[in-house]
Amino acid sequence: MATVTKLDNGLKVILKQIPGATAVSVWIGYHIGSRNERPGMTGSTHWVEHMLFKGGGKLKKGDIDLLIGRLGGKLNAFTDTDFTAYFETVPADAFDTALFIEAERMRNAAFEQKEFESERTVVISEREGAENMPEFVAEEELWSNAFHIHPYHWLPIGWKQDLQRLDRDTMYRHYLRYYAPNNAAMVVVGGFDEAAIMEKIRQRFGGFKPEQPPEPMNLKEPPQMGERRSVIRKPGSLDHIFAGWHIPEFSHDDTPKLAMLSAVLAGWRGYHPFAAIGWQPRSNRLYKALVEAKLAIDVTCRAEVKIDPGLLVSHVAVRSGVPPEKAERVLFNEIEKIKQKPPAKVELDVARTQIRAWSGFENDGVTYQGMITTFFEMAGGFEKYDHTISAVDRVTAKDIQDVARKYLTENNRTVVHFLAEEVKA
Description:
alpha+beta, about 20% strand, five-stranded mixed sheet, Cytochrome Bc1 Complex, Chain A, domain 1, 2 domains, about 40% helix, 11 strands, globular
């Protein structure tokens, strides 16, 4: 069970006490992601994340890594479309070090001009490195083609031309506007005394003044009225197919049904992609139809967790020598089959087992628990994660058939083919 407290300045604090745990994971999420950007400043939120490792206030450059490293702890940060999150996992008796770091980050980042320009090279290099990966190129094309109005049109890394032009003062104002206590949620998981840690949190964060709440992001993507297609030709070793269908926001009642549909089609790899690296579920329709049939080396299907309506995305890594059109035809045929005939009971049982097993894995240890709680709090409320996991038990075969018919239509579909060209010597 979690204890939720809201400070007078608006900071939401979620405490999940684990008696006997020897570590504490401190997470803080900000309601600021690439969906809050606009053309001309794409990538700015991710850049701000980088700058918050550069010191400010009582922290000098390099202090954050040094402080956590000395404790044998770990730390990281993530920028998504809907939020930015930071964390430190440390020994239980050192939790105040993590609170100190996050308090300095919240209001006291330096944004020194020299460091800002140095980081420009870093974020542009990160962007250029991603452009060498077919999956990134194809997925970026997918989202930019599927969304014409909503800011999901661009990925958190931003467009290169914006990264080349952004200036320090614009970025600093962006930071001050969104990195405020009333635009954040803190999650603490592990072994701690609740009263003691709340006292420290009030000491560290209670004095920060709230900012004027950002205006709501009211852009809505209009319904897609027909299939959209793109073809990309770049050097690579394999062809790739990405297909995306518009689906509702995570808080929608259809989310558990879409989770089960994804699991029946391509197996479940968890809600967080980092946890699933190297895992390839095989007891599902698309694996049997594409991988076992020697048409692909991997196939995935996932319903994205978004504040606003997003996409259900399927990715096929096409086996060398196989025409992409053939693999695509099999992919869409399998989807049509599920529309025509509901999945069998054994498929539902396997899907539920996978989702429940992954839920256990995603909550294994204080760091993962902090991550899941923070990510879903940012997506509309951390309680919705448990609700979604428990709701899969009530999803019927007809429910799965219904959402497939409702969302996985040709007119609601965006398709990208990445066609690998031979690398020239």
